[in-house]
Specification:
- With about 375 residues, the protein is α+β, with helices and mostly antiparallel strands.
- It folds into two domains: about 1-80, Threonyl-tRNA Synthetase, Chain A, domain 2; about 90-330, Rossmann fold, CATH 3.40.50.300.
- The chain is built from twelve helices and 15 strands.
- The chain has helices at about 1-20, 45-50, 55-60, 90-95, 135-150, 185-205, 220-240, 260, 265, 280-285, 320-330, 340-345; strands at about 25-30, 35-40, 65-70, 75-80, 105-110, 115-120, 125-130, 155-160, 210-215, 245-255, 270-275, 300-305, 310-315, 355-360, 365-374.
- It has an eleven-stranded mixed beta sheet.
- The longest helix is centred in the middle third of the chain and has 22 residues, at about 220-240.
- It is globular and about 65 Å long.
- Residues about 335-345 and about 350-374 have low confidence and may be disordered.
Length: about 375
Amino acid sequence: MYRLLEFQANQIEMVLASHDVPSRVFGGLVTPRFVQFQLAPPLGTKVKRIAGLSEEIALTLGARSCRVYRQGGAINVEVPREEARTVKLIPLCRRLSQIPPCTAVLGLDESGTPLLLHLPSPDVAHVLIAGTTGSGKTELLRTMIASLAMHNRLGEVQLVLVDPKGRGFAPFAGLPHLLHPLVNDVEEALSLLRRLVKEMERRDHEGISEPRVMVFVDELADLMLVGGREMERVLTRLLQRGREAGVHLVGCTQKPTAAVIGSLVKSNFPVRLVGSVTSPEDAKVAAGIAGTGAEKLLGRGDFLVVVKGQVLRLQAAYVSVNEIQKMATRLREGGRRSRRWLEEATGTEGKTEVSLKARLASRLRLVKAGADSR
C-alpha cells in the first residue's frame, strides 16, 4: 500500500510539472472510499488552474475520476480506492461510549472520525439530503432513523416516517418510536403534517419542546407534486417555526430546485447532505454553493456535509434491512436495558471499550467523536 501511495504521489507531481504547475505532495489521508493527497503549490498559483487538471490526473492514475479543491492553505486531490470498504452502523455505534440525546449518527468523515448530527442545534434544525439515484439517500435516512431509535427513549424522540415510494421505510414498521404508522399516501401525509402544525402551535403557546418529533420524508418532490401549494404551505410552516417547538424535518430529493420543492421550502434547510450528482450545475443546486465538486463523488454513501458555506466529506454508515428488523423487534420487546443490546439485537458478539473525545466542529454542532481502542 505504501509503495502504491508513493507511486501515485509521484504521478500527480509529474502531471502538474508537465503543465508548468510544479507542486509537492506533502501528506494525505487514506479513507474507506478514497485517498486524499495534500499539495503545496507554488506561491501565486491559481486553484482553478490545478482543478482544471483533474481529468489529466485521473487519466494518469487510471482512476474513474479525481476531485480537486482547496482546504485551508493546501490543495487536496482525492482519488477513489479500487477496493472500497463499507462503514457499518452497528460497529460504529459500539465505538462510541456516549451519544448525546436527539443526535443522529451519520458515518465517518475523511479523517476516519465518527460524525454525528445534533438535530436540536439552532445551526441544524432541519436537514435536506440531495443526490441522484444510487447516491445512497434512502440508506442514509435509514441510518439516521436507526441511530435515533437505538439511542433515545420514547420520551425523548418520536418519529414520523413519510414514504411515498412505499419501500424505503418498510423495515421500520412496528418500531415503538413511531408517532404514527408508516405513511405511504400523499393525502394522508398532508393530513398528518397539518396535525403536526397544530401540535407545533400548541407547543409554542405552552413553551414546550419535548419529546422531539423527527419527521423523515423519503422523497420531497413526490409530496410537492401531488400535494401542491397546500403541501408547500404546511412544510414551510414546519420548517420556519418547528425547531423551537421540537419538530425537525429531514427530507431527501434528487434535485432540490425551487421549481421542484418550492423556494420557501428550499431556503429553510440549514444543513445539506449532498450525494453524487451528474454535473457541476446540479452540484451547485444541491449544495447551494458553487465549487463543491459533488459531481465527482463516488455514490453509494459518499456525501458532502454543507453548512453555512463549509464543506466536509462523509462516508455514510450502512445498516441492513435485517439489522433494522432485529432492532425493531428488540425495542418492541423492551430489550433496551444496556449498551450490550446493540450486539444481541444484531447477532454479533464481543465488546469493545473505547474512550470518547467529542468536539464541536466550529459552530455547526456537528459532533465529531474520535475513538481509540484500548
